[in-house]
Specification:
Elements lengths: L1 H14 L5 E2 L17 H6 L9 H10 L2 H5 L3 E6 L1 H10 L10 H9 L2 E3 L12 E5 L5 E6 L9 E3 L11 E10 L3 E6 L26 E13 L14 E3 L7 E8 L11 E12 L6 E9 L11 H5 L10 E9 L17 E6 L1 H11 L7 E8 L10 E4 L15 E5 L2 E2 L3 E5 L8 E3 L6 E4 L14 E7 L4 E5 L2 E2 L5 E3 H5 L3 E5 L5 E9 L3 E2 L9 E5 L1
Parallel strand pairs: 1-7, 2-8, 19-29
Antiparallel strand pairs: 2-3, 4-5, 5-6, 6-7, 7-8, 9-11, 9-18, 10-17, 11-16, 12-15, 12-17, 12-18, 13-14, 13-16, 20-22, 21-27, 23-26, 23-28, 24-25, 24-27, 28-30
Helix pairs in contact: 3-6
């Protein structure tokens, strides 16, 4: 029987060539129960281990005080590896897990622990389980086969309920002592329900009182992992994005800052690029383009290469700073492969980078005119691993007889008075150190007393954090936000904006409030912010 058991397990590993590590990282590849005498934290956090890629997770669990919860057993843990944790730390402006408040880590990790033992080897093909995590929010774990990996597992593969992109499990099916299952991922997993986005600004809005300016892209190209040659995007060729392993193409954009006199009142900074077309993606498919910042601004579009910009990393942009993403739906007849360009009905992707632009100007100081900033864009769509998938973005100097010339740009806008009113602003009272900031219980805006024809629904009310709380943290999807970050009243209604208390005594934070038209709420003629008090 032992020989038969060995043959079966080896067959499973061999039959899934191209998959992520299924049973592969066990000390004994031939025995799926080889680690059942060891605890997960001991195995992943052991400094003598040959693989130290999950040590930060162990530190986070201990700092959050969740060792006993895991030790109780009969749970599945989604384990972000060190790459994921380092990206998270960078995004919130710290360098060590010890700088993150325990209550924040607890909030994040409780979403990644749920009852039951979920393993690829015991799940059927296309099985997708919805479980309530310890945080009280739903999480999905599925066995989602691909053409090369029949045991591929994914976390939160539910585009009908979630706005986030599914996360592929990179190392899976670890079975530890007390029936603790671990599924290792390469990015942070948070609960992001679908929330109505901010409406487009309608035509005809009188924003004549708003100061505006435009920063045009000066350099753009794409770099290709399989080529050492420079990108040198030609007019009409476009910036290509490919997210498939081994054939990555990453887009690069660069621009020059210029002086503006409304930085203190900057309401929005929107980076806009036109989508020229797609290949292989089917009509009605959801495409997601991630936007990252690049510290290196010395590159030129005629000389940049993948190795010089991305450093030859297997996962593109792993060392850069993720900003945000833009999602669009491929036009056309549902289900039909789209091998076309979008000329007659232009399609644009837009990223709100207000916080980043404010920080860029502040960091430039008096040397604004001598400061350049750069971005990288990456296809992170759910179907990007399918063969032949490409997203084509128009180059800055794109032109075609069918359409007018188009320039990629960042539109900066200052405020004009909004007609919104403050409905109420109640003090926040945390319970067990936490409070969900819902409009009904805390603060909320509403439209004018006399209807002006515009829509002031929750999705069109935007808050910007001007002053952070000093004895607590505000989180969005479980991740701490910082000064100049935004959230909408719709996100408050969905329960994803929270205050976590980290100190004692009373606290407060300061917000500015704008509407989707670009108007800013002024409580009085000398004030453009509201203060929220915490009991």
């Amino acid at each position: 029987m032992k020989n038969l058991k060995i043959w079966v397990i080896l067959t499973l590993v061999t039959a899934t060539t191209g998959c992520y590590d299924l049973v592969k990282n066990y000390e004994f590849d031939t025995d799926p129960d080889a680690l059942k005498s060891r605890t997960m934290l001991d195995y992943f956090g052991n400094p003598n281990s040959s693989d130290l890629s999950r040590t930060i997770y162990c530190e986070a669990v201990r700092r959050a005080g969740l060792e006993d919860v895991i030790a109780a057993g009969n749970v599945t843990c989604v384990v972000p590896n060190n790459t994921a944790w380092n990206a998270f730390l960078t995004s919130i402006g710290v360098s060590s897990i010890d700088e993150v408040e325990p209550i924040v880590l607890k909030s994040i990790l409780q979403y990644l622990i749920f009852p039951g033992e979920y393993r690829a080897l015991t799940m059927t093909q296309d099985e997708n389980n919805r479980i309530i995590a310890l945080s009280g929010d739903p999480i999905w774990i599925s066995r989602t086969p691909s053409t090369t990996d029949q045991y591929r597992m994914m976390i939160n593969n539910n585009p009908e309920a979630l706005s986030s992109v599914p996360v592929v499990v990179r190392q899976q099916d670890y079975m530890f002592k007390d029936n603790v299952v671990a599924q290792v991922v390469n990015s942070m997993v948070t609960y992001q329900p679908i929330i109505t986005p901010i409406d487009e600004k309608p035509e005809g809005v009188d924003d004549s009182m708003s100061k505006k300016d435009t920063l045009f892209i000066t350099d753009d190209t794409h770099v290709y992992i399989a080529s050492a040659e420079a990108g040198n995007v030609l007019d009409g060729q476009g910036v290509w994005l490919v997210g498939r392993s081994g054939v990555y193409r990453v887009g690069l954009f660069k621009l020059q800052l210029k002086d503006i006199d409304f930085l203190d009142d900057l309401v929005s900074a929107i980076f806009t690029v036109r989508v020229r077309g797609v290949a292989t993606y089917r009509a009605d498919a959801t495409c997601r383009i991630d936007l990252h910042t690049l510290a290196d601004v010395s590159w030129r579009e005629t000389t940049a290469t993948y190795n010089s910009m991305i450093g030859g990393r297997v996962y593109p942009l792993a060392a850069s700073f993720y900003l945000t993403n833009a999602i669009f739906t491929v036009p056309g007849t549902s289900g039909v492969p789209a091998q076309s360009v979008f000329y007659e009905n232009p399609l644009y992707v837009k990223w709100d980078i207000t916080r980043h632009m404010i920080e860029s100007y502040e960091n430039a100081g008096s040397n604004v005119s001598g400061t350049q900033i750069a971005f990288a864009v990456y296809d992170n769509s759910p179907g990007m691993t399918d063969a032949g998938t490409i997203i084509y973005l128009c180059a800055k100097d794109f032109s075609n007889a069918t359409v007018a010339p188009f320039l990629s740009y960042i539109a900066l806008a200052g405020p004009f008075p909004s007609t919104m009113r403050l409905r109420h602003n109640n003090p926040v009272t945390p319970l067990d150190g936490a409070a969900v900031l819902t409009p009904d219980a805390t603060f909320a805006m509403e439209g004018p007393a006399v209807d002006d024809g515009y829509d002031y629904s929750d999705n069109n009310v935007i808050y910007l954090l001007k002053v952070k709380p000093s004895r607590g943290v505000i989180t969005k999807y479980g991740i701490p936000i910082t000064r100049n970050d935004k959230f909408t009243q719709a996100e408050m209604t969905a329960g994803v904006i929270k205050y976590l208390k980290t100190g004692t005594g009373q606290d407060s934070f300061v917000l500015s409030v704008s509407d989707y038209l670009g108007g800013l709420y002024y409580p009085d003629e000398n004030t453009s912010t509201i203060t929220v008090n915490i009991n």
